[in-house]
Backbone:
């Protein structure tokens, strides 16, 4: 089941030019209705349930089917993000509530080095990743000989 917006919770990201859910969706599915100031998923057949919009929404307005391995049929899962962790509140169909908190980063917010600290020159024709061979702890990578 694709994501859907609960209009009672959506505040249209307080009329920002581009809402958080629009910004984050890799399929460009989220649209803001400027009349109602509510967002909606414009093509549910294209939604792959990546959870991005669910996790970024500041008002917990976006819901999506929970994966069965952590929330069985009829349960809901609502995230609450902080700068270093995410807290999932799972409500089961029998009324039970469980909360799971996970760390989401290993460096403080805003301090991650864009290149990961690897000062290598980008070479689009190279067969190795730009951090290799250093990131795999080697002097050179294994290569097949002709
Ligand atoms: S991110 Fe949440 S509050 Fe903002 S427009 Fe989307 S659904 Fe509404
Ligand atoms: S779950 Fe992912 S693909 Fe679906 S609308 Fe949200 S961000 Fe887009």
Residues:
């Amino acid at each position: 089941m694709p994501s859907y917006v609960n209009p009672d919770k959506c505040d249209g990201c307080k009329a920002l030019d581009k809402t958080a859910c629009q910004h984050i969706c890799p399929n460009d599915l989220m649209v803001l209705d400027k009349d109602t100031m509510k967002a909606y998923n414009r093509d549910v057949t294209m939604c792959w349930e990546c959870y991005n919009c669910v996790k970024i929404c500041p008002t917990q307005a976006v819901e999506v089917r929970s994966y069965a391995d952590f929330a069985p049929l009829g349960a809901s899962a609502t995230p609450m993000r902080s700068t270093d962790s995410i807290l999932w509140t799972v409500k089961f169909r029998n009324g039970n509530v469980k909360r799971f908190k996970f760390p989401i980063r290993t460096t403080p917010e805003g301090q991650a080095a864009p290149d990961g600290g690897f000062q290598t020159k980008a070479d689009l024709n190279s067969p190795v990743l730009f951090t290799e061979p250093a990131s795999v702890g080697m002097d050179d990578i294994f290569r097949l000989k002709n």
Remarks:
- The first strand starts at residue 4 and ends at 5.
- The chain is about 5% helix and 20% strand.
